[in-house]
C-alpha cells in the first residue's frame, strides 16, 4: 500500500500589514479621537503584529497603551478601538503622529514594518483669567482757582503789575539795564503776551522766575532795531511763563522796551471744581501661561467726566487696559457725581482667537462733601461757689455714615475757672472731644460767686472735603455764693484794775510830755497824737501839770497843731469832747490872716460827704460848734470867752441833742440835732481847722489856735450835766476814779478775725456772747442781751471791762463771713474768764484727771480741763470745752458749741445745728442722719476725719449722700472711705436733709 504525503513548505517571509489612519482634530485641553485601522496581510495566524505610535509631544497622553518615555507609545490592535490623544496642558500646537506596524513570521522570525502618519489639528481654548478688584478710600482735592480774564498793564497804567528799573515815555518803559515786572500783591501771574522793542543790542531776553528766585522759563527774541515797540510776542504757549512770580527783560548792549503786558492769574488747567481720587486695585492674570494667550481688561459703565489714570477711553463709557496699566490705577470722580457701579472684565484671548472672560462689579460711593449740622442740646447750669458745677452739653453727629468728625469749643471761660476735661487753649477757650462731654463740669474761680455765660461751638468736619458746619449756643452758669470760714483767734490778756464807776473816755491826752517828743500819749486808749511843726508840750503852766503851746500860725513854721489818726472808736454815734484852753486871741480880727476864728478841735473836709463832720472854734469871743450830716448841719454859738485865762469847754452830741458847755455851764444847744460822727474818716486835729481839707486827710489847714491846751478827752457816751460839772470841778482822772463806784477789771481782748475769701464778695462780722451784766467793751455795739456786735475796725485795741466781783463766765467769740448772696459761715472760739483769778468755775468744770461729766437738759457750760474726759452734754444749747487730753464728747440735742481743744478727740455733736472746732490733734467727728445742719473745723496741720454713720459706700447713686468739695481738691475713694489730696473743705448732704459743712478735714470714713 502506498501513501502519498503532501509536504507544505513553511512561509519564510513576513507579509506585513496595511495602515488606514485619518487626520484628527479637537480642542485644547481635551481628548482628541484617533482613527487608526491596522489590517494584517497574512491571515494564517503564523505572524504576530506590534503597533507603535511615535512623535507624541511632551505632555501629550494617549488614552491607552504604554508610554515608552521617549515620545513613543506601544498599543495593541484592540487598544486602537476608541484611542484618543490629549494634547499637553494649555497647548493648542498642532502636531503629527507616526504609526508604525511590525509583523513577525513566527517560523522564521522574519519581520515586515509599515508606517504611516496622521495630523492632529488642535484648536486653542482660552482659559478664564483670575480677577480681583478692590476700591480704596477716596482722597478729595479742592478745585483750583480758574484762570481769570486777561488784563492789560503798561508802565503808565500798571494795573496789577509793578514795573521797576525802567524809564517811561508814555505807555512805553525802556532801559539799558534790566526791567523787572512783578505782581503788586507779590503773587504770581500767567504771561500771555508783551509788546517788545529793542534799540541796538543782541536781542531781548525774557526770563521768568518763581517765588524762590529760580529761573523757570526763558526766551530770546530778536527784533528790528527802532523807536518804540515793534512786535507783540505771544507767550501763552511757551513753557515756564504760567505761574511766574517775576519777569525780567534785558537787551545786552542796547535798549529794551516794553509796552502793553497782558496777563492772567489762576490755574489755566483748573476746572474750578474739586474731585475725589480712589485707588482702583485691579489684579488679573492668565491661568494659561504657555504664551498662547493674551490678557486685556475692560472697565465699563464709567460715567461722563470720570476718568482713569491709565488705559484707553473708548468714548462709550468703557476703558480698555492691558496688564501694564493696572499698576497704581486710580479713578478720579468730579464733585457732584452721584454713586455708580463699575464693571471690570478680564479677558484671555488664545492665539487661535478663542476668548474667556470673567467680570465683577464694584460700587463707587462718592464722598459726602458737605458737613451736616451737628445735633446739639445745651442747658443752663447752676451750683455753689468753690464747687464743681455740672454742665449739660449733648452733641452728636447729624451724619451717621462715619465720614464726619466732631469737635467742641467752649469759650468765655473766666480767668481761674477750670473745666474737668478738654484742653485749655490759654485764651479763655477750651477744646473738647465728644467723649469729654460725659460728666463735664466747670470749677469757677476760687472764692467767686460771679455768674457767667459760656459760649459753646460744636463743629462737624467732613473728612473727605474739609467742609465744616458749626452750631453755636450759650449756657448761663448761675453760682450761689458760699461763705468761706473766716480765720479767728482769741486771746484774753491779764486784767488791770481800773477806777470806779465814773465815765471813762475812749481816748485821753494829758499833754504832759516834754518838747521834742514825737508822740502825745493816749493814756487810756490806743490813739496817740502827733505834734505838728514846733508845738511845745513842756510848759508847766497847764491846769494839770504840763500843757501844749500853740503859736497861732501866720508862717508855715508856726502852723502848729496836734493830729490824731482816724479811728472808728473816736467817731461815736453819741459822745462828748472836753478840753481846757487858754487863748491868747479870741477875736476882733486878731487871728492869722485877720481871722476872727480860732480852732479848738476839728474833724472835717470840704463838703458834707457822708456826714459826721465836726468843728469847735473860738469866734468873736464866743464858742461855736458846727456839726454836719450828709445833707444837713447844726451850727450853734454861745458863752463869753476871755483871753489869757483858762477855760474848760465840753460838748456833747446824741439823743439829747447837741450841747456846748463853758466851764460847766450850758451856753448853746440844739435839742433837735441827734446825729453823731459816724461816716467821718478824717483825723482829729486840735488847734487847726480842716473844713477845706481833702477826704480822709488833714490838709489845707487854717484858723490856727493861739494859746495853750490841756487835758483833751473824747467819750463814746453823751455826758450828763452833772458829769460835765464834775469834769469842770475835778478833771478827767478824778471823774474816772470817782468815789462810791466799784472798781472794774479791764481785760485786753486780742481778737484776730479775717476773711479767707478776699475777692470782695464777703463781709465779716464779729459777735461776742456770754458777757455778764454791766460788762462793757471799749468798742462795738451792746445789743442789750449779753451780746455785742463788732466790725473789723473795732478790734484794734479792744478791751473788755468787767465789774470787780463778777462771776466767772465763758466768753464766746463768733466770726461770721456773709457772702453777697446771703450765705454765712461762722467760726466760734471761747475763752474762760476767771474774774477772781482763783480757778475758772463757771458751769461744770472738770479736773486735771480724766473726768466723766454729764450735763443737764438745759443750756450747760462744761469745761473738761485736762485729762481724757468723757463728756455728755445732754439737751439744750450747750457750750463744751474739751480742754487738753483725748476727749470723747457727745453734744446731745440742741444747738451746741463744742471745742475739742488739744488731743485726739472723738466728737459726736448730736441733733441740732452745732458748731464744732476740733482744735489741736487728730480728731474724729461723727455725723449721721438727724444731726441737723452742723459745721466742723478740723484744725490746721492735723489729720482730722469725718465718720459718716449708716453710710456704706461712696457719694452719689444709691449711697444716700452727696459730696461737694471746694476749690478743686482731689481725692481718692477706697472701699471704706475717701482720702483728700490736701486739707479739704466742702459740704456733705444726707438724704434726710442733714448737712455738714466742713473744712480742715483730711479723710472721710464710712
- Put simply, the count of helices is 2
Taking pLDDT < 50 over at least 5 consecutive residues as the criterion, the unreliable ranges are 1-8, 589-594
What value does the average pLDDT take?
89
Radius of gyration equals 59 Å
* Oligomeric organization of the protein chains: single chain
Shape assignment: elongated
Mind explaining what this structure looks like?
The strands form 16 sheets. The protein has a 16-stranded mixed sheet that branches. The relative contact order is 0.06. The protein has 7 domains: 17-123, Immunoglobulin-like (Sandwich); 151-264, Jelly Rolls (Sandwich); 275-364, no CATH class; 375-480, Sandwich (Immunoglobulin-like), CATH 2.60.40; 502-736, Jelly Rolls, CATH 2.60.120.200; 744-824, no CATH class; 843-1005, no CATH class. By secondary structure, it is mainly β. Residues 1-8 and 589-594 have low confidence and may be disordered. The longest helix is centred in the last third of the chain and has 10 residues, at 721-730. The protein has 2 helices and 83 strands. Strand 82 (977-990) and strand 83 (995-1005) form a beta hairpin.
